[in-house]
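Researcher: I'm preparing a figure for a lab meeting and need a structural model of a single chain. I don't have an experimental structure, so a prediction will have to do for now. The sequence is pasted below. Please return the structure as tokens so I can convert it later.
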Amino acid sequence: PVVRANRHAVSAGHPMAALAGFQVLEAGGNAIDAGVATALATNVLQSELTGIAGIAPAVVYLADSGKVISVQGNSAWPKLASCEYFHKHHGGEIPLGILESQTPAAVDAYLTALEHFGTMSFAEVAAAAIRFARDGFPMYPLLAQLIDEKPMPWPTTRKHFKPEGRAPEVGELFVQAELGSTIQFLADEESKAAKKGRVAGLKAVHDAFYKGDIARKIDKFYRENDGLVRYEDLAEYRGGLIE
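Model: Understood. Here is the structure written out token by token.
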């Protein structure tokens, strides 16, 4: 159906993600705050299609100036990846799997958008995502089908999406406790730095993901599974804005 509104509206791939953004707007946040809240919720609600360690390019329209600005949000190839590497080891092809992986860009993009255009803290816009992951949400047909049909070679992936050894059934509560803990950890790190100001809090979130325990766990996983992403790739990553 056509949805009309006279104050504000949010469109998303899942109604609960749209609700997360709408609640931020109702609480006084602006469109950027709502956009990040919606994106984070989508990372949980549609986690087989998008993730917090993925990409998140965004376009921002500034009504006052008429400018259109892009938040970079696209991943960078790790330093160990090169044309020479893939020619030498894989016949010039990039094989499906872990070697396709690039440096995660989404968290940086969310924080860049919040810093330059938002008004709320990371914890405020992440609250719904944390709740959906920690407490769960009813499984819906498309996600259940994707989980059931998609090969999952990694034990950690199977544990996440098939905790009972099978795809969750439609209507069954789908809990992603570890994902919720990860997002909550970022919010907690922000809280520790919040006394220094909102921007300092956002920087603490960035450091927690790209230079802290999360980055080290990512590095460890890629080393153990013959991937190319390393701690240094994460620690040096910054996307920025494109005008």
